[in-house]
Amino acid sequence: MGGPLGAIIGRHPTAAGGDGDGQIGGGGGGGIIRHNRKCRDLVFLVIFIAFWVAMIVNSSFGFNQGNPLRLTYGLDYKGNVCGNRHAKPDLRELMVRYWLNPNQVYLSGIENSQFNLADARSICLMECPVPSEDGLNWVCDYPEGDIRLSMDDWINRDYDYYEFLTSEMRNSSLQLQGPCYPVIFPSVNVYWSCQFIARASNVSLRHWQQMGGVNIDENIIIDKTIHRAINSPSPVLKRYVADIGKAWPVLIVCGGILPVFLSVIWLLMIRHFVAGMTWITVILFNALVISVTMFYYTKAGWIGNDALSVVIGEHDPYIHISGREINHIRAVAVLMTIVMIIAFLSSLAIIRRILIATSVLKVAAKVIGEVQALIIFPILPYVILAVFYMFWFSAALHLFSSGQILRNDCSGNCCSFDLKSNKINCDNCCGYRIHYTRNIGISILFHLFGCYWATQFIIACSSTVIAGSVASYYWARGEISEIPFLPVFSSMKRLLRYSLGSVALGSLVVSIVEWVRFILEALRRRLRHSDPAPVTCIGKFMSSSSQCCLGCIDWIIKSVNRNAYIMIAITGKGFSKASAIATGLIMNNILRIGKVNVIGDVILYLGKLCVSLFCALFAFLMLDTHKYKSAHNKISSPLFPVLVTWGLGYIVATLFFAVVEMSIDTIILSFCQDAEEHQGTAQYAPPLLMETLDSQGEMQRLTQGS
């Protein structure tokens, strides 16, 4: 182990005495931790800083090129994004995309057709037009050229200025070449696009035919074509990302404020009501899992009448047949059912171990009571993480929408009347698309990796500060209770001065392992979908085994990292050396601390899940209000906002629960090292700690050899 730790971090000299390297010479002089430290792993701190510079540059590209409106709203025939106030003309109130020419929509839906729906002429309106009950309604192009109308007048006239057209313009309109187009089919607003219903209005169609208009195809292809376009994978993913932007109040309340409140309450209850917290945590966890699962069942339409179609475009005639959002909700409902069953069976399995967990939590409760600043310290990393997430989510929305708007190269007949040139134009009449380059995909992946690394770094810094504070309390024999705020600030000072590079390295290792798992899983899924041959039993076994091995490696690395942060806080060593010390200490005492540590971690994990599940449940309730079912805040599905809220709640809970988690781990590691240094009798353990361990019979387990 490289020397006794008591001599390094305690006021009191060890039996060896002396002032050797890192040792202290007396009982009363100096600070709590006096050790000849120096900056460690500086190379990785430089890499982390350089990575952040690259993150800022990458985000600035998104802010410069992106427009989150593209994720929700479509493009018109001029290449403008509906709802864009900076477009020409101003489209700030015109958010619904409507396809003007029904024959072009029909043509794009024919099998093997060279004409695409993206090239069909579309326009931005306030709401989907409906056929007239006693005549023929028109929707005309944006007023320009010889049409002397303002945009407001055009809107007030229900987009109709057919009476102002010249004879040439009217003849062109009767050929479905504009500038005015008949409203023959009823349509409904589905995800901000007008979904045609292939039941033409008899009155409008008769008037159109009497005026000498060209034949209009009546076929189910018309509305199925738009439905397929709306529910293709790319628009669904864009809507999911856009839902996060629309539901930002839910993310702030349920993913930011609520988990802080719940975590602080949990810490206070651990401090004052530790005996019953293990039972409360287990029971509450199962209740919340059941509640969230039932909400997913409700939104999937399996319970009651509150299916997802009530939240999103209930008028879509095909939403109950192949809506992707419904299928995704049902998949999550099945997954939550499995989680619910596993959670219930696991709870039954650990009932007999609850008393051990209670004794472990008593240790943490006593530490929190002595070093009271630990309860409020997580607010600092929480604020830093909140500021980072606000920046990151904003940059992510812009990066996801940072493609270039380019005109298509179409070969179909898309001639239309150009009001500026006052003639029919067949050259530049193709539609527009948003083109995403390979570089944008790389930028998004880089941005996602940066989020994970930064999150792990902040959590690691918080854990290291807590570990240093608890170690100071332990090796000072409880004298630190007289000045409760000093150990936290001293530990923070040591982290900022010496150990940021080591923390950057540890968080980078975890991030790389997680991303290797993510990449391998993505490749596995792609290979499975690309290979039509059925998977053999051996193939399934190998796939499951590899996933299990990667999961175990990930868990081991996270566990080693957590203990390495403790040794970094105590000894000031670099990450590699601290990991070796922590691993050696754990392996030498695995039979002594294994049961206590695992059961304590399980209860804390359930506590974090309780906080995150409650946040998800509350997010469901907020998203079920009228605000998110109508107007501009209308979301396509509660799935992504709820999952993001769940994740944010878990991260915030991790910051606050680290107070208890790191306290337990630090106390146990320090206790085992203390016992090893003093022939099985811990000398630095505070009396309250020894009383707690003795009361549950754990003292004997920890001090006896294997």
UniProtKB/TrEMBL annotation:
It is a multi-pass membrane protein. GO terms for cellular component: plasma membrane. It comes from the Eukaryota. It holds the Pfam family Choline_transpo. The chain crosses the membrane at residues 42-63, 247-270, 276-297, 331-351, 371-392, 442-475, 495-520, 602-623, 643-660. It is found in: Cell membrane; Membrane. One of its GO terms (molecular function) is transmembrane transporter activity. Keywords: Glycoprotein, Membrane, Transmembrane, Transmembrane helix. The keyword Glycoprotein applies. Choline transporter. Belongs to the CTL (choline transporter-like) family. PANTHER family: CHOLINE TRANSPORTER-LIKE (SLC FAMILY 44) (PTHR12385), CHOLINE TRANSPORTER-LIKE 2 (PTHR12385:SF14). This is Choline transporter-like protein. The lineage of its organism: Eukaryota, Viridiplantae, Streptophyta, Embryophyta, Tracheophyta.
